Amino acid sequence: MSKASTTGTAWSLDPDRALPAEPRQRDIARAVYRATAELPIVSMHGHVAVEAILDNQSFGDPAELFVIPDHYLVRMLVSQGYSPADLGVPAVDASGTASETDHRKIWRLFCENWKLFRGTPTRYWIEHALIDVFGVTHVPSSEHADEIYDHLLATLALPEFHIRSLFDRFNIEILSTTDAPESDLAAHAALAADGWGERVVPTFRPDALFYPHHATWRDGIGRLSARSGIEITGYESYLDALRKRRFAFAEAGARASDHGHLLADTTPLAAADAGRIFDAARRGQISQGESHAFAANMLFETARMSLDDGLVMQLHPGVLRNHSDANFTAFGADTGFDIPIPIEFTRSLRPLLEEFGLDPRFRMILFTIDEDVYSRELAPLAGVYPSVRLGAPWWFLDSPGGMARFRDLVTETAGFYNTSGFVDDTRAFASIPARHDLARRVDAGYLAKLVAEHRLGLDEAVETAIDLAYNLPLQSYARRDS
Amino acid sequence: MSKASTTGTAWSLDPDRALPAEPRQRDIARAVYRATAELPIVSMHGHVAVEAILDNQSFGDPAELFVIPDHYLVRMLVSQGYSPADLGVPAVDASGTASETDHRKIWRLFCENWKLFRGTPTRYWIEHALIDVFGVTHVPSSEHADEIYDHLLATLALPEFHIRSLFDRFNIEILSTTDAPESDLAAHAALAADGWGERVVPTFRPDALFYPHHATWRDGIGRLSARSGIEITGYESYLDALRKRRFAFAEAGARASDHGHLLADTTPLAAADAGRIFDAARRGQISQGESHAFAANMLFETARMSLDDGLVMQLHPGVLRNHSDANFTAFGADTGFDIPIPIEFTRSLRPLLEEFGLDPRFRMILFTIDEDVYSRELAPLAGVYPSVRLGAPWWFLDSPGGMARFRDLVTETAGFYNTSGFVDDTRAFASIPARHDLARRVDAGYLAKLVAEHRLGLDEAVETAIDLAYNLPLQSYARRDS
Amino acid sequence: MSKASTTGTAWSLDPDRALPAEPRQRDIARAVYRATAELPIVSMHGHVAVEAILDNQSFGDPAELFVIPDHYLVRMLVSQGYSPADLGVPAVDASGTASETDHRKIWRLFCENWKLFRGTPTRYWIEHALIDVFGVTHVPSSEHADEIYDHLLATLALPEFHIRSLFDRFNIEILSTTDAPESDLAAHAALAADGWGERVVPTFRPDALFYPHHATWRDGIGRLSARSGIEITGYESYLDALRKRRFAFAEAGARASDHGHLLADTTPLAAADAGRIFDAARRGQISQGESHAFAANMLFETARMSLDDGLVMQLHPGVLRNHSDANFTAFGADTGFDIPIPIEFTRSLRPLLEEFGLDPRFRMILFTIDEDVYSRELAPLAGVYPSVRLGAPWWFLDSPGGMARFRDLVTETAGFYNTSGFVDDTRAFASIPARHDLARRVDAGYLAKLVAEHRLGLDEAVETAIDLAYNLPLQSYARRDS
Questions:
Q1: Looking at the keywords, is Isomerase present (chains A, B, C) (predicted)?
Q2: Where are the alpha helices (DSSP H) in B348-399?
């Protein structure tokens, strides 16, 4: 909380923030949280650019760090009538829309609209980063916008605020990036040569190669062919090339593959049918329905491949991307217009789980932004299939209320030990500590309730909290052949 | 709470009712609530009959005020085995079912069954109205039914309990009624002549003209034609007539149109297709499927029309009306047998939002009684489209728990400032203060939790509460050309 | 809570367990709970074997009592990589899988994995049974596994721990078993002869005869024919045989029928169509679609039959059984692989409720494990149809959080008096007191919140709690002709 907002004294973070308000539970939660507060950060799923780490980049100016690339923040201002262009988001179309280039002006606009973020996790993360990481002492406002801007600009230029220094300061033990199958992984190799090979690992993200109706698919196949050194002449060589790249990723330290599909469907195709769709797609003759069927088949094939290379399979379906074509045409993807749809897992995952669900070599981590499936489908599935773990609340749900509802709706059926521990899923590097700290606080609060209601011992709660914050993510994302 | 029920002293409302029980949060909530408790009531969506206000009607007797017209109350007694006829609901069929005409007897039956309402908002509203508005001092019961009846009968006859006096006493700044497109708006004109033109405004509710398979549709088109003075010969002149009536409503002070559809579908039709359906419907040759397609198209056209006349567009889909044909045949609509169905917004609204969602002249307010869409669809949509605001929890959800869940599930993604503020949606005039007061208490409780968990400053909470109770409904329902 | 786990003193149950943590609400909840804690148990829906009661069986050894037959417990250990065979679940296939036969070893495995159950109702129930029923003084662990095993083995052998003694000690007033239509009800008759006829009653569960595509259907029809003494030559005589068996069940004391369907569909078939499907099924020529249509029709026919014999109709749809074929083939049904699917009631029940929903002779109790329908569909339906009552949270939802959410999501629309009171739905006899006690505690907590927020009087809360724990289950399951 901004104490300055009520008292005029220096802006600061309350040590009890996001813990339960009720005194008895807060006391217990404090004790539980204390046991996890200083644990290293295990960040197994995120979108930090590996090159930024390799080059030990500075974060530029405040607008570049906090506003322009953050779709949470952009969308909230767009929802109140600003254009992405006002916020410096570059136009991608040929319309010649001029985006704001005065970054101080963008920062002012953000500061003036600070109140819009009340009650949101964006507010919570940015508050944490501004105060705790960058030493800002004023609440964002019209009055203080420039002063904060100048302070941040000076701070961000200091070597100790470049990314590798913050990596150390944040106590990040391991961080996974997200990488295309055709990536040369050169940055990862260079980091490894620097001794950072265990600290920064790649993740295999092949979505663009799994949906053949996407405009970029054919070029992607070409790049995959080139990178793998396998001439892709059809479906079988396509599978071979993917297999080869997965092994390359595993050798480069990858723990997992990652799959963001529209649906959770995992129905396999007969090889002949998959081959026919593949060939038609290369000729540009494919329907959306065939493309989705092909993508479902590829989830099935991914599970099969993972038996050999041990990569953990992450699946997070249920988002309709780029809901507004007009915004997409003007400003491109990842600008806030991705909207969830209802999702179904029980029947959709059945083909895959029938085949691989009981196999000790297989590990799957499931994410959702449709909360309706927590108690109905995800917890019962994770509560019986040894291969299934539930990922942390994700995207819109990575928030105090979202995390509390996750524990409430999942724990009684799946327990704690079928969950993956926390996953931050962020491209905003400076917010990583805030996100992990918040998850530890919310979990401490949930465990404190169990203790206060005499449903768990305090020693058990402390052990569980440590497992959720540290041991479970390491274990859940351990390569299955390791 | 009825203190009389435990101690025998006078029945009274506890000043802390519906605030959080935990002392720390209650203290904060009290401070927040104090800032909104006396604010004027802004009632932008309701079903009070404009003629009742024009004529400054009395509310009749207790059964006429509280029981017979209130479908919440009727349905609860029906659920325990009483017939609507026992409650004085008039039969509409030719079966000759005799409805109870002894209103004292109806009142007794209600009082005897007071316990059925435990834990419901009906109980909360009626308690507030009986105690605070009408000065009743006994809990409803067999024992006190007659005494309360007599007290209410005498009170309701007093001039200071006629509707305009209560309107002043309730501190209602503005109230929207709901009106058919073919309404002559004469009562609104007469009120305006009385100086009440800014206090009571109409709302354009064209549902009956949008579903061509309904039995009343053709007559409605006839009335629309007559009232608009436009001869309706086909789809284009039908649109013209609607357009003209919308402008008449806007001139009469209307802020909004209101749409209660079965589905949220907004897919437009080619004009030729819409025309063909329209013509077929006038010949009585239309399928249900065509009718729903036509209604979806009319939502799209409504958005287009609103760019010109500035009316805010309210949409509340998802209720299957008259679930029991037997009850509908005997007692007609609005007697408690309307049951929600699952609803979908992300894909359904896409056509409309593609076309109008980024237009600053467009404003849409969305309601649901399927809570599953709060965090999955509604908050993400409102959290990015500048045209979209989320209406208050509605119908079954207009309750302490319902409102708490709304804030919990919506705020972290949409913030507070993409919600519309409170909407009471009632035809029960005497319950209006209770409903607004309850919403202010529940919002105070939610904000108090944020403050107690150090996620918001107290000054911010107070400002937000005032916005939710007063400023946001005024702003959300401001005509877009105003 | 296991106090031993934190302090080393004797393991014990805290008297305030599962009551609200906040002191003010806990005080009120204590007062409410005190009024119900000692009430007799009314157990109207369960899966205890009637023969076990007739024979006054012992529960064998600890693995036989707690581990092998409990699919909640088995599935949690399977989810962490153990095979059902490790837990002594017998293989049903011809593969010759050897299941563990050393029950002490099975018990040790369970004790070593005690931590997996943190936060689950399984932990809560077993803790209650171990401490309160069997006097165990150590928390399950590797260290104490043998000691606990020996203690339980000795205890279970004592006559006062045989089932009839526990029945008395648990203060069970009435318990319903679940029985096939072709059951001879001989055990029930023998119990009646013993004077236990009012304490143990059968329930008519005809699912196996309603889905003609199931492999066992034809044999079932044969058994039904034999038991009823009616030669089943077609659909009409099939209905006659069912009708006759329902009367036999009613005469044997049955209060209800029970229906576990995949969907809630209740669409009736024309008799000719039902007859055609029936005849085709007898020839083995039936599709899944026809089978589901037949089952839906049979729900409709069940409602009709109940008008004559007064049996209450229980429906609990929405579970996809045996999600893993591999596990089903190896270990059979009820081993933890039943996973819920989304379910719909509003339209599905409409045909049945149209015909029978307002009939005072009809009573239906609805269960769900899809929580999404609580506020959207079930509460509105129960809040108006006099025939409908909502069953208690069931299966995965029979837990502190699940029960709290049920009250939160249902009460404001349906009130308390359209719910059935608690139903334990267990085959684990020793857990019956724990389950009922937990429900009484959670309801006390919910009611305490209403009192603390001044929405209900304490006297009303106490009366409501007693109704929920005792009167409502008796009334809801009273035969409608009684």
A1: yes
A2: 350-356, 373, 379-382
Ranges of chain C whose pLDDT falls below 50: 1-8
The answer to ipTM > 0.85 is yes
User: Which residue type, as a one-letter code, is found at position C199?
Assistant: R
Q: pLDDT band for A282, please (50, 70, 90 cuts).
A: very high
Tell me: do A186 and A114 sit in the same domain. no
Q: Could you say which of B159, B177, B210 is where a domain stops?
A: B159
Q: Shortest Cα distance from A184 to chain C (angstroms)? A: 36
User: Partners for B (CB, 8 Å, 3+ pairs)?
Assistant: A, C
Question: Is the confidence at residue A301, as pLDDT, over 80?
Answer: yes
Which of the 8 DSSP states describes residue C378?
I
User: What's the rounded mean pLDDT across residues A309-328?
Assistant: 96
d(CA C208, CA C219): 10
Considering only CB atoms, A118 lies closest to which of B376, B380, B464, namely: B464
For A385-412, what is each residue's pLDDT tens digit?
999 999 999 999 999 999 999 999 999 9
Positions in chain B whose pLDDT score sits under 50:
1-8
- H or E element, residue C443: helix C432-452
> Facing residues of A389 across strands?
A365
Closest CA to B324 of C374, C348, C355: C355
Q: Which of A132, A161, A190 is the last residue of a domain?
A: A161
Of A25, A415, A451, the CB nearest to C120: A415
Pairing, β C200-201 against β C172-176:
parallel
Which residue range forms the structural domain that includes residue B146?
60-159
| Alpha-carbon gap, residue A139 to A132, rounded angstroms | 13
Residue with tokens 């079954």, as numbered in its chain: B396
User: Per the domain annotation, does A225 fall within a domain?
Assistant: yes
Cross-chain Cβ contact B401/C383 below 8 Å: no
Residue B265: CB atoms within 10 A of its CB come to: 20
Any domain includes C423 = yes
Distance, in Å, from the CA atom of C100 to the CA atom of C130, rounded to the nearest integer, reads 23
Q: Which of A346, A358, A411 sits opposite C340 (nearest CB)?
A: A346
Cα distance between residue B237 and residue B242, in whole Å:
9
Cβ atoms within 10 Å, residue A334: 17
> Which tokens is C170 given?
């648990």
**Cross-strand bridge partners of residue C300:** none
Residues A83 and A117 in one domain: yes
Write down the pLDDT at residue B2.
43
- Interface partners of chain C (CB pairs < 8 Å, 3 or more) are A, B
